[in-house]
User: Fold this.
Amino acid sequence: MNNQHGYYLEDLTIGMESSYQKTITETDIDAFAALTGDTNPVHLDSEYAATTPFKARIAHGMLSAGLISTVLGTQLPGPGCISVSYTHLRAHETREDL
Assistant:
């Protein structure tokens, strides 16, 4: 792989892996809400979020999907990779390492 393109399909092998870790903060969630306009109170209002099944503020699903995109588009397979679909598995709270 180089900086201009990622791995070619024929260069990918079973067992290859890559990772990216980010601790989601309230500031991250607030910034994502400001950028996208998604002001759902489960993301922004601690008192409201406490009344939900999550019991605390949670990150936007697309914020965590963006971290998946970071790996795909910058590491494995890398530059040139465009992801078009994600399956969201669970909610993520603030201060959680993803």
Summary: The mean pLDDT is 88. The chain is about 35% helix and 0% strand. The two ends are 25 Å apart (CA to CA). The first helix runs from residue 26 to 36.
